[in-house]
Design brief:
The protein is elongated and about 85 Å long. Helices cover 44% and strands 20% of the residues. It has nine helices and ten strands. α1 runs antiparallel to α2 and α1 packs parallel to α4. The chain is α/β, with parallel strands linked by helices.
Length: 324
């Protein structure tokens, strides 16, 4: 019997990927990398890796009889090299371990080693600064305004459309089939949440509605000036802000941590110099309006605040709306 080291290594890599995904699900850290709506998809990937592992372990060893048969067939196929008809070029894992192979295995092993031995690090103020900080918030405001104009234009066009685009409907159906683990709400619930934003005596921005309410407030600040608001986030201080100013921020993840974008409110409070980057706070205050680089932004006049522990899931995820 002959044992193939490289086949064993491949089996170990497949098992390690399965174990890493299982560990991320078991600890809950998976939500620090992807939107929860893809949880079931990642579980499927773990099962697939396990299935491939069981197939791979059958290739780790071969009997002498199998070796003789294999070498015989190998020789027959390659005897046609001169005729350029040999099709036996794939690697069975028994060719010498070269530098090229070492590089390939290193690339595959790197995410496994970092996944198992480095703790899951959450995005913080340093990442917010690299992503553009307040300038990003200003750009988001402009993009939301442009999107609003575009949506109004689309609505006008749809008034003249009598049939639903089949391709678009199929794409939507596929997207919803992937979102089985997402917190879905109906269109009626979505409209009710928006109605509560305008009618409630104080705006309470929990994680479920944070991105929705943030977008609504940023698009039409005038409607919300003077309203009471409560929310929580981490402190981000940007160079150039007044001493009493800071940004209370969150990261919004649409698909995975790679597409995370910062959202949050420029805030003013007397105690701002005492607060520091990445400090989590829960605040209440009054909405006002300010200007940053020529762009109008909502600013929160903080009345009360307290330090809190960083939530286990510090990120926000967009609401998913059920169509049916």
């Amino acid at each position: 019997m002959k044992i193939h080291f490289q086949q064993a290594l491949r089996a170990l890599i497949l098992l390690a990927f399965c174990g890493l995904i299982f560990q991320l699900h078991n600890t809950g850290d998976i939500t620090k990398y992807i939107n929860p709506k893809y949880v079931r998809l990642s579980q499927s990937a773990s099962i697939l890796f396990l299935f491939l592992f069981f197939i791979q372990i059958t290739r780790i060893w071969t009997s002498k009889k199998e070796e003789v048969v294999h070498e015989h067939h190998h020789g027959q196929n390659c005897c046609h090299h001169d005729d350029h008809s040999c099709s036996h070029h794939h690697d069975h894992g028994d060719t010498p371990f070269t530098v090229k192979k070492l590089l390939s295995y290193s690339i595959i092993l790197f995410p496994l080693l970092t996944g198992f031995f480095l703790p899951a690090k959450t995005l913080d103020a340093s990442i917010a600064e690299k992503k553009g900080g307040l300038a990003i918030l200003g750009n988001q405001k402009q993009e939301m305004s442009s999107s609003e104009i575009s949506d109004e234009s689309d609505i006008n066009l749809e008034d003249y459309s009598f049939e639903e685009d089949p391709a678009e409907a199929e794409e939507l159906e596929h997207d919803l089939s992937v979102n089985e683990e997402a917190e879905e709400i109906s269109n009626e619930e979505f409209e009710q949440l928006k109605k509560e934003l305008y009618s409630a005596p104080a705006i309470k921005m929990d994680d479920k509605v944070f991105s929705l309410y943030y977008e609504e407030i940023s698009m039409d600040i005038e409607k919300f000036i003077g309203r009471e608001i409560e929310f929580q986030g981490f402190i981000y201080k940007e160079e150039g802000l007044d001493s009493n100013q800071l940004v209370i921020s969150r990261f919004l993840i649409t698909h995975c941590v790679a597409d995370a974008s910062m959202i949050g409110f420029l805030s003013e409070m007397e105690e701002a110099p005492e607060l520091y980057d990445n400090m989590w706070v829960k605040v209440s205050g009054v909405i006002d309006k300010a200007s940053y680089n020529g762009t109008e932004l909502p600013v929160i006049k903080i009345k009360e605040w307290k330090e809190i522990e960083e939530p286990f899931i510090p990120y926000l995820y967009p609401l998913t709306i059920k169509i049916l």
